[in-house]
Design brief:
The complex is a heterodimer of chains A (429) and B (315). By secondary structure, chain A is mainly alpha-helical. Chain A folds into 2 domains: 241 residues, no CATH class; 147 residues, abc type-2 transporter like fold (3-Layer(aba) Sandwich), CATH 3.40.1710. Helices cover 69% and strands 5% of the residues of chain A. Chain A is elongated, with a radius of gyration of 31 Å. Chain B has 2 domains: 213 residues, Rossmann fold (3-Layer(aba) Sandwich); 86 residues, Alpha-Beta Plaits, CATH 3.30.70. In chain B, a hairpin with a 3-residue loop joins strand 12 and strand 13. Chain B has 315 residues and is of the alpha/beta class. Chain B is built from 11 helices and 14 strands. At the A-B interface, helix 1 and helix 14 of A face helix 2 and helix 3 of B.
Chain lengths: 429, 315
């Protein structure tokens, strides 16, 4: 026990004097969460997902259609998703170049006339996308596809009615009240008759759904925390970066081999088991400190709270033990330091991705979702932390934590045996 | 040379790595207070021999006894008697010199208090007291070598295994380290010293073993090794030896052994102890254009050359 304490004290002193590698790993994890979080916008805190897409509409048509569109885009529902400005073409293009807009939609001159005349000769809309962005312009393009499909459907099915409406809307001469009422009435009647023809398709639908939100008694603040995209991302990122940090700490065994201290230790003590166990303790201590910084710092920095902090803390501690086991095991199989570095990075990235770091396991192909991910310790951790954030008290986190600890201890026992055999065979470690 | 109670006894040591035989039947022993040098080029099997002796590797054959007991019957006690100075600087660069010494002392079983006092003592002996609290990363090569040596001495071992402890340092630092090691020998510590520096082996070692390709080719005192090759005399003949066919020089071939040959020089030793004047007379009569013939005392390098056919300095 004294020897274990001596070894651990020595290594912690070394880490304290050179903390940069660990700090860099924590920093990268925080930065990635920040970048991804910012991509989804500040509203990620309240769970609404995307920041409004900055869009400009250039109205070269100067017609009633543009006026209708203007009213539509300034509605509250639309404004939640699109921050729309009506600008001149030059001004809009300039803003695109400055990366201030995601896309510009140009309503071409003569569009309304052509559309209301049946749409056959309608000039096309123009969509100018910001090349510096990928996601938001694509969303606008999809939206344009929907709009164009809708307008085409209108023109094909209500062509005659559109002309009638046009004459009503654009009537410049003074018409008496009764004539106007007659025109509007007959237009409505015609539209009603046309809709009657497709009634069986439209109403009532054969299949329907209702959308309800389960009332679980949580207040708004709790609900906001549970759906917070940062918290969701954080669980995955932590799952991966804690393994990375564990790997970095574990590779200290190879540094000891490179500097000859491993041989010197072995020449004094013979067996390496105590050293491997000490390295595992070191990994647990370092990853635990990193986890505290990441989870506490993350929730403070990104404004979310863990619904069940005790469970998250216990799971994280268990995951640190498991991470130490996983990285020790991989290191023991890898042999040489350089090879170990490459193999460990690939294996950890693979484990992390298959465990749902980036994409939720539910969204993965069936083979991975059903056969691979359920057997991966990082998936146990990431999945349970995310579940805890949604389902709170009802998740069986203690069982998962126990499984993580037992897996970690088992892997350390195997890896210490492998390390010892390698040393006696004359390998570097 | 077998004493009643050798500190280290190695008998018929064998080690293979796959198809390569790294150590092939090596046998020697070291008495307390004896400085034994294992001399050989890189890859000769010196480091593997040390690794086998200190238990880092398990031998495929042969026996190792430390303090009269078979190593593998009680490896813990055997390791307690030994201090190993690896060729690498086996130090933690982030820690200070003192911290390194104390750490290795504790690993070797000293209490924190004993480790502290022993570290102070060694820092003094190694003339590093004034830099004791600096990180090792800030030390010069020579200072690192001294601390590396000190770490192996923390638990006062009776047998010190030194694997090329002076590699890559300046002459002054080397002298300091060698003096320090000599002092340990005077205290009764037995030393196994591997090196490929001839001068070190010549000036330091009580006995020398010459090892090449895993085999111990010869061992003995410097005088023993010299006499083995040339009865204390070597003849250096300078002349035009290129394209000369020596097979017809039957008298020469019966009377001399060629230690080294080039196009312009032959180094030869008399096969039997003879009067040097007779030898010179015979050499001057050789049917070849000679420029010079000189007589010299054989060096360790000549011994190495005679045994291996290679110049140690070439490695």
């Amino acid at each position: 026990m004294d020897l274990l304490r001596t070894l651990l004290a020595k290594d912690l002193k070394r880490v304290r004097r050179n903390p940069i590698p660990v700090l860099v790993q924590i920093g990268i994890a925080m930065l990635l969460v920040l970048v991804i979080g910012l991509t989804f916008g500040k509203q990620a805190r309240s769970g609404s997902g995307f920041a409004p897409i900055k869009l400009s509409i250039v109205d070269e048509d100067k017609s009633v259609f543009a006026e209708l569109l203007q009213n539509a885009v300034t509605s509250k529902e639309f404004a939640e998703y699109f921050d729309t400005q009506f600008l001149e073409r030059e001004e809009a293009v300039a803003l695109i170049n400055e990366n201030e807009l995601s896309a510009v939609v140009v309503i071409p001159e003569g569009f309304t006339d052509a559309f209301l005349d049946g749409g056959e000769n309608a000039p096309p809309f123009e969509l100018i996308k910001n090349p510096a962005q990928s996601l938001y312009p694509a969303i606008v393009e999809e939206g344009m596809n929907v709009l164009v499909t809708l307008l085409n459907a209108l023109a094909r099915n209500f062509g005659e009615g559109l002309r009638q409406w046009r004459s009503i809307l654009e009537a410049e001469e003074e018409t008496d009240f009764f004539s106007t009422v007659f025109l509007v009435s007959s237009a409505i009647q015609e539209a009603r008759e046309q809709l009657e023809g497709v009634r069986s398709y439209l109403s009532p639908p054969l299949v329907s759904f209702e959308s309800t939100t389960r009332d679980d008694g949580r207040n708004e603040e709790e609900e906001s925390a549970s759906f917070n995209v940062y918290a969701f991302l954080f669980a995955g990122m932590a799952g991966m970066f804690l393994l990375m940090i564990a790997n970095s700490a574990t590779s200290d065994i190879y540094r000891e081999a490179r500097f000859g201290t491993l041989k010197r230790f072995s020449a004094i003590h013979g067996k390496l088991h105590v050293l491997v166990v000490e390295k595992m303790l070191l990994v647990i201590v370092i990853t635990s400190i990193s986890a505290v910084v990441m989870f506490l710092g993350g929730s403070l920095a990104f404004g979310f709270s863990w619904l069940n902090p005790v469970a998250v803390a216990a799971l994280t501690a268990a995951y640190c033990v498991c991470g130490a086991g996983i990285t020790c095991f991989i290191a023991s199989l890898s042999g040489k330091e350089r090879r170990a570095d490459s193999i460990n990075t690939i294996v950890i990235m693979g484990l992390a991705i298959l465990s749902g770091t980036m994409v939720p396991v539910d969204q993965m192909p069936a083979l991975i979702r059903d056969l691979v991910s359920p057997n991966l310790p990082p998936a146990w951790f990431i999945g349970t932390v995310r579940e805890l954030q949604v389902a709170g008290e009802t998740v069986d986190w203690a069982g998962v934590a126990l499984r993580l600890v037992l897996t970690g201890l088992g892997l350390v026992a195997i890896s210490s045996f492998i390390f010892h055999r390698r040393m006696l065979k004359g390998a570097a470690a | 040379m077998k004493g009643a109670m050798a500190l280290l006894e190695v008998d018929g040591l064998h080690k293979r790595f796959g198809e390569t035989t790294a150590v092939d039947g090596v046998s020697f022993q070291i008495e307390p207070g004896e400085f034994y040098g294992l001399l050989g080029p890189n890859g000769a099997g010196k480091t593997t021999s040390i690794s086998l002796i200190c238990g880092l590797l398990k031998p495929d054959g042969g026996d190792i006894s430390v303090g009269g007991k078979a190593f593998w019957s009680d490896p813990k006690s055997a390791r307690q008697l030994m201090g190993v100075v690896p060729q690498d600087l086996a130090l933690y660069e982030e820690l200070t010199g003192r911290e390194n010494l104390e750490f290795w002392g504790k690993v070797a079983g000293l209490s924190p208090k004993d480790a502290k006092s022993r570290a102070t003592e060694l820092l003094e002996s190694l003339t590093l007291s004034d830099r004791a609290n600096d990180a090792v990363s800030k030390y010069s090569g020579g200072m690192k070598r001294r601390i590396n040596l000190g770490c192996a001495l923390m638990h006062r071992p009776k047998l010190l295994l030194l694997d090329e402890p002076t590699v890559g340092i300046d002459p002054q630092a080397r002298v300091n380290i060698l003096e320090f090691i000599r002092e340990r020998v005077n205290e009764g510590v037995g030393i196994l010293y591997t090196t490929h520096y001839l001068e070190e082996a010549e000036s330091l070692c009580d006995r020398i073993g010459i090892i090449d390709h895993g085999k111990l080719l010869a061992e003995g005192t410097l005088a023993d090794l010299r006499s083995q090759i040339g009865h204390d005399q070597l003849f250096v003949i300078e002349g035009a030896f290129k394209d000369v066919e020596r097979s017809g020089w039957s008298d020469f071939n019966d009377s001399f052994r060629v230690i080294q040959e080039t196009d312009t020089q032959l180094v030869v030793a008399a096969s039997e102890k003879r009067d040097p004047a007779d030898c010179l007379k015979q050499l001057l009569a050789l049917p070849v254009q000679l420029e010079n013939v000189t007589l010299k005392r054989p060096s360790l390098n000549d011994a190495f050359l005679a045994l291996t056919g290679r110049d140690l300095r070439e490695d």
